[in-house]
Fold:
Amino acid sequence: MSALRWPAILLLGSLAACGGRPYVYEPLETLDLVARAESQAAGKVRVSASVPGAAETEAIFGVPLYKKGIQPVWLQVENGSGNRLRYAPVGTDRFYFSPLEVAWKHRGGFSKSGKRQMEQHFHELAMDRYIPAGETRSGFVFTHARPGVKDFNVDLFSPEEFHYFTFLMRVPGFVPDYGNIDFAAMYAPEELTIHDEAAFRAALKDLPCCSSNAAGDAEGNPINVILIGAGRDLLYTLLRANWLETSADDASRADDDYLYGRPQDATFRYGSSINDGHYELKLWLAPLRLEDQSVALGQVKYVIDHRWIIARPDPDVDNARNFMLQNLWYSQSLLKFAWLSGDEVVPVENWWLSFQDDPYFTDGYRAVFWISGQPVSLLEAESADWEALPRD
Amino acid sequence: MLVSGCAAQFEPKPLQQVPFLERSATQQEDGVTVTAAVPSARETRELFGVSLYSRGVQPVWIEIENSTTEEIAFFPVGVDANYFTPIEASTIYENKKSRRQMEQYFFQSGVDSRVGPGETRAGFMFTHLDEGTKAFNVDIVGDERDWNFTFFIPVPGLKLDHHEVDFAGMYAPEEIEHFEITEDFINAVEQLPCCVTDAAAAGSGDPLNLVVIGEPKDLYYAFIRAGWDETEAISTASTFKTIISFISGGAYRYSPVSSLYVFGRPQDVALQRIRQNINERNHLRLWLTPMRFEDKPVWIGQISRDIGVRFTKKTITTHKIDPDVDETREFLLENLAYSQALAKFGYVSGVAAAPIDQPRGNLTGDPYFTDGLRVVLWVSSDAVDIAEIEVAGWEIPQG
Structure:
């Protein structure tokens, strides 16, 4: 036995003698979590919020909450109004964890007094439900972890007034797959910009039908969605619609498809549970712009994944395209949409195989989505008078 | 599990031979008629040749009749935000021999999302399984307006606990106390028992911190709308299902809950709500009281948030509940409010306060602390916007 291991064994022995380890954590003031909080105000009510990354969370709570899929969100409400406000955590996460539930999940290994201290710490750091008039309250709400970017609401109520705030903030310690791509330098903008819709529509008609393999000699799945919007809006829209970014160092990321001689610029994934399938969206920045708006070409498909079967893509790629229309519509991000026919019609009776050997069929239509940075109600979303999707 | 290994022949029955449409429900509004029906486990097996229910898939029949002059679009995500695609539903069973045939059959059975003027379209959507009652929205969008229909369709197959209770005959007319004056009602509610007991009416368990006002139908719609599941009555079948799910490492969503007692009887209604996964849930029990307030039945109840499983001397295993029972109570209020199922709320006292450093224990020895208040919830079967909820200015919770 090496000399190094003796102290460790002695330490373990002494811990066992006290019946578990003590509870230790770092005071919130030692971290910059509060200093970097983002704030929003409505009338005399100001809300600040900040999301700690995995390491910060472990420091604050002494236990690794992220490992159990729990992400704390720090909130502060300054209530300058004359009404007592009620904060509703279900507005932030419909299935939020209660503070003592989180403590219970992490109780293993602590001494009796350690467990009690931990419970007390979680209880004290929790966000209060009530913010009296003229006062400030702050604390954490425990949500389901979302990698990449956290988007959440803070809803405040009183019998006299309501306030709804929406936050979107990057979680420290996560680099998305597109993080190192310089989109601004990808194309020369002056060559690409189109100003009128008819010319733009014609340009969209000329876009490639499908992705390909790396060598460019075998076709992949169709490019079936086109997104138009300011770069930031495109990203925020997808995040708001519950699409998740892929981490740059995610080993389980999707296989590459190629367009314009390069693999997809970004991959997003929609669907929370591993066993229930997920939508996969691959995006390429297109070499054209509509006025000051970027255009992204997308390939969306659904991957069937269930504990009883081997995961495989759904050959009905049109379903994924139609899903995306509903998804953007319901998340109030859709300003306008249009359908655009293509040459590659693949009937359901006679499926094709992509270069990955995945079968698919399609009516050949693409959905074109104009994205809004501001919420658009269900009825405000417009349908452009281009082409009609065929009804069978 | 064995079925998939030997199901070589794919033999679905035609729609006309499976009489589930007899249980369909129809709603109509401004030129759009929607009919919906949910086949049971057995009917689904007949319709699709495989046991979709056992894989967590439930088909829903939707027929849309468009008498307007414009094309309308139906949004499947309104019915189930994570719906299964038809081909996905067909491939949940590996059946190499008939796979292609099944995929085509399921695909053709799918409902169309667009309905032209004067047309009627019908077909199936494949949703996540709900066994007691299937609650869903059918959202339809036209050029200038939208239609929203909400369906609650009972699914045959479960023996539900609240179906066993005769609410109307529970109290004789002379036993019922009618309250019209608010102060009298508050006084009476405060006098109701503080806590549940065991069968022998002994012990003092979880605090009765809920008062619910509404007809049985209001409670049913409100709680189903807010995502609560009914529980199955204790029977050989339900016990068997609980055991099977335990062995297979799962959890049975509708499993019976243990009985707690008020007025000398076990709960009249037990509901559970799964949070993110099936092992995380909240339990709620309600008893009908002999009181009526402003002519509506008054219920008293208890709610707990399971935060884990622990071993006890009395029942071997039990759920560890969140000791912060007020937190769980407030969750329910917000859950109902956000689900548009709450018309009004207020607070009364009646449960003695127990501060965090002097907690009380329930029947299984779990500690809890509370401010001692009961929340009074007027539930609604019609959707109530969150901004329209009334607040009764009775007791004010501190904190």
User: Anything to note?
Assistant: Residues 1-7 of chain B have pLDDT under 50 and may be disordered. Chain B touches chain A through 54 residues (CB under 8 Å). Chain B has nine helices and 22 strands. Chain B has two domains: 2-154, 161-391.
